[in-house]
Amino acid sequence: MFNKRIKVRELLTREPYHEEVTVMGWVRSFRNNQFIALNDGSTNSNLQIVAELGRFDDALLKRITISASLKVTGTIIPSLGKGQKMELKADTITILGDSDAERYPLQPKKHSLEFLREIAHLRFRTNTFGAVFRVRHSLAFAIHRFFNEKGFVYLHTPVITASDAEGAGEMFRVTTLPPLNPPLTKEGAVDYKEDFFGRATNLTVSGQLEGELGATALGEIYTFGPTFRAENSNTPRHLAEFWMIEPEMAFCDLEDNMNLAEEFIKYIIRYAMEHNREDLAFLAQRLADEEKQLPQEKRSELGLLEKLDFVLRNDFERVTYTQAIDILLQSPAYKKKKFQYEVKWGIDMQSEHERYLVEKHFKKPVIVTDYPQEIKAFYMRRNDDGKTVAAMDILAPGIGEIVGGSQREERLDMLLQRMEEMHVPAEELWWYLDTRRFGTVPHAGFGLGFERMVQFVTGMSNIRDTIAFPRTPGSAEF
Ligand code: 4AD
Ligand code: MG
After folding, report:
1. Which ligand 1 atom is at minimum distance from the Cα of 205?
2. Same CATH fold, 125-161+208-465 and 2-104?
3. CA of 193 to the centre of ligand 1 (A)
4. Which protein residue's CA is at the shortest distance from atom 2 of ligand 1?
5. Which residues pair with 244 in a beta bridge?
6. Residue 462: nearest ligand to its CA?
7. Tell me: the pLDDT tens digits for 162-221?
8. Tally of CA atoms within 13 A in the half-sphere of 196 that contains its CB
9. What is the CATH architecture assignment of 2-104?
10. Closest to 60 (Cα-Cα) out of 125, 47, 52
11. Which ligand is nearest to the CA of 167?
12. Which residue's CA is the nearest one to ligand 1's atom 30?
């Protein structure tokens, strides 16, 4: 019977009153042929197990190697050693699985995050990744809880689709046609009519368009699923496969949208701070140690926990794109030619510009609204100035863009005009346009990049360290 075991996290909340318990986990270290540090993944804290000298066979003790899995039954007693309030005095120790210490790649020392990425199948067994993945779980849970409390319907939008929701052409094709000698049309192009779905399909870049279909009947929906982008961006903030949360609300304008996004982000941060105190404290210390290697001016002014607390206690700054460009043009950084990329009205802001606004100028999360329509997707609602759209991006310190959203163009004629200008095929999106034909309503929504959110909360500087098995250009191991 395995489920008689008690998890270490639960055990540590009890008083050590000589209770008999069974624990299971993996050996982190074994000292003096006597003290086993056992971790079962439920918490960063190891349980100290005492194998009294003379009580166990040498043959058994030899098999207690790093990362071997054990079942231990014994008595919980107050610990004499410092560093823990209790320890488990072992009565029986069973080796569930041996571990060849010579070949085991993780040693009880600090490994680089780059190295750990190469052994991503084992990195869950480190303190850092144990903490990251427990926090990631909490954030995911909090997201569902937030929307459930608000009466949103969780909508599962398709992973395989025939449309390009963002119109950016960064899609992974999905096909069962043979790569060599596929069927061809008369014109010599690949004939996707012969393909599995009778048409060309790809992995979704966003569930938004289908989300709008749901919202314009169910009122308020959200999606939370994997999305895929074949953009060749080798940065610490881009993945080819990432998870996105996309709420979509009928009877909602840009301001409502911003308010919801801000409330949402604060809610999930608060949830993690309340439920993952130990893990976040560990990650804060990890980040502080990492930053000690950096020159003074590159270090964060606030520690991780102070930063999160600061975000909770302050309103996000709200500026228009036009104001943001003015701030950049007036900045000392601009005047001293510190920006690598050009600054003028109409640019798609580069990460250096976003980081300046957030980290140097406002020093808090910033919502930038009303971007030029040329740099935004076809579905965003055109403002009365005829130049900008009712878009909003949320920029977070250390990350840059964490949310992208907008009020949607609900006016059929305006939408059709914009699609034509942007060469978005209206005939293929006939079903999307139907929402504007049958009882169209003002509506809005946004997308939160989940891994960027996990980055923000855990302080991990590379997005590859926030998802179990990252997919990036040239890399799909595991
Ligand atoms: O700004 P994006 O492209 O917006 C959309 O997809 C809209 N359909 C959302 C909506 O309005 N429903 O992406 C939204 C967010 C970004 O702000 C960013 O946080 C994240 O998704 N994101 C990525 N995260 C990791 N890797 C990538 N390659 C990402 N691309 C976008
Ligand atoms: Mg965006």
Report:
1. 6
2. no
3. 31
4. 404
5. 225, 449
6. 1
7. 998 888 879 999 999 999 999 999 999 999 999 999 999 999 999 999 999 999 999 999
8. 11
9. Beta Barrel (2.40)
10. 52
11. 1
12. 238
Best residue for ligand 1 mutational test, from 143, 348, 452 (most atoms within 8 Å of Cβ):
452
DSSP string computed for 259-284:
HHHHHHHHHHHHHHHHH-HHHHHHHH
CATH class entry, domain 125-161+208-465 = alpha beta
Q: What is the CA(295)–ligand 1 centre distance, in A?
A: 32
Asked whether 239 lines ligand 1 (CB < 6 A), one says yes
- Using the structure block, give the residue that is written with the tokens 């299971």: 24
Q: 232: Cβ–Cβ under 8 A, 6 or more apart, which residues? A: 473
Angle at 398 between CA 397 and CA 404, to 5 degrees: 65
Question: Does the predicted model carry a pTM greater than 0.85?
Answer: yes
First to last CA, the chain: 31
* pLDDT digits 0-9 by tens, 27-60: 999 999 999 999 999 999 999 999 999 999 999 9
Asked whether 445 lines ligand 1 (CB < 6 A), one says yes
Pocket flag, ligand 1, residue 447 (CB < 6 Å): yes
> Tokens for 437?
């034909």
Nearest to 370 by CA among 453, 266, 257, 211: 257
Is the CB of 68 within 6 Å of ligand 1?
A: no
Quote the Cα angle for 276-272-83, to 5°.
15
For the chain, the domains span 2-104, 125-161+208-465, 171-204
